[in-house]
Amino acid sequence: MASLHDFVNLDLSDTTEKIIAEYIWVGGSGMDMRSKARTLPGPVTDPSELPKWNYDGSSTNQAPGDDSEVILYPRAIFKDPFRKGNNILVICDSYTPAGEPIPTNKRAKAAEIFSNPDVEAEEPWFGIEQEYTLLTMSKWPLGWPENGYPGPQGPYYCGNGADKAFGRDIVDAHYKACLYAGINISGINGEVMPGQWEFQVGPSVGISAGDEVWAARYILERITEIAGVVVSFDPKPVPVCDLVPFCFFFLLLATTTLVGSSCRLA
């Protein structure tokens, strides 16, 4: 008798040239990720080969109910670590049917800046550190006592052992899945709070840094979905805790020295 696992892992290349493309976009909150899949006639290697698509923006808080169509423009392609084979993940941004970026489409303005010849001449390199917290389904951090709080900061940062590192199997699965996808993930480490981790992306040039971070976040959401765990990028997943996840980036330009900045993802 076949199992669900058998069907999930079917190798489509044995029977068809068709592939599955998972279109991914940022939802109305600016941090939630949405996606849906479509069948394509064969392998694709460049976003320009992909068709635009649409979705109901009234269901993602991105359009009114009486004018809800939003158009997806494919922007970046990554290998799909879940379906494998020639299947792909597609990072998209969102537009009105008239071709105007919707208000939550921050990528469009970034693309305009990065395509400026003066900016291109600088060849900006970004290195991004993304912190996150793994939570139970009841939204309590992994490794925290039930209805209680952990010991003080100290043993958890880059820690090892069952009483210091919580969720490492999820973290390693995400690391390998990002490498498989073609994301320039450069490392991982445990952070200062139980259940808190970090991954780094880069160095990546220009707007590709943002595309890679969003793809890495999406893959992490999917892996935690499989594991039955919730991932939070919230700067304060537990309001009384002062150990907060954040996103930190380094920028290196052709004509300047290294600069850095942090961004708490409120």
Question: Helices, strands, pairings?
Answer:
Elements: H1 4-8, E1 19-26, E2 33-40, E3 53-56, E4 69-79, E5 88-95, H2 107-114, H3 117-122, E6 125-135, H4 168-181, E7 185-190, E8 196-205, H5 208-227, E9 230-232, E10 247-252, E11 259-263
Parallel strand pairs: 1-5
Antiparallel strand pairs: 1-2, 3-4, 4-5, 6-8, 6-9, 6-10, 7-8, 10-11
What labels would you give this structure?
5 helices, five-stranded mixed beta sheet, 11 strands, single chain, 20% helix, disordered C terminus
Report on the structure:
Helix 4 crosses helix 5. Strand 10 (247-252) and strand 11 (259-263) form a beta hairpin. With 266 residues, the protein is an alpha+beta fold. The protein has five helices and eleven strands, in the order H-E-E-E-E-E-H-H-E-H-E-E-H-E-E-E. The strands form two sheets. Strands 6, 7, 8, 9, 10 and 11 form a six-stranded antiparallel beta sheet that branches. Keywords: ATP-binding, Cytoplasm, Ligase, Nucleotide-binding.
Quick recap of the structure?
Homooctamer. The chain is an alpha+beta fold and 266 residues long.
Instruction: Report how far apart the termini are.
Output: 48 Å
- Multimeric state of these chains? single chain
Q: What's the helix-strand series?
A: HEEEEEHHEHEEHEEE
Mean pLDDT: 91
Question: Would you count the extended β strands for me?
Answer: 11
Tertiary shape:
globular
> How large a portion of the residues is in β-strands, by DSSP E?
25-35%
Number of helices: 5
Regions with little confidence, pLDDT below 50 for 5+ residues: 257-266
Level of helix content? 10-25%
Main β sheet profile = 6 strands, antiparallel
Radius of gyration, CA atoms, in whole angstroms: 20 Å
Q: Please identify the structural class as seen in this structure.
A: alpha+beta
Family: Belongs to the glutamine synthetase family.
Subcellular location: Cytoplasm
Protein name: glutamine synthetase
GO molecular function, one term: glutamine synthetase activity
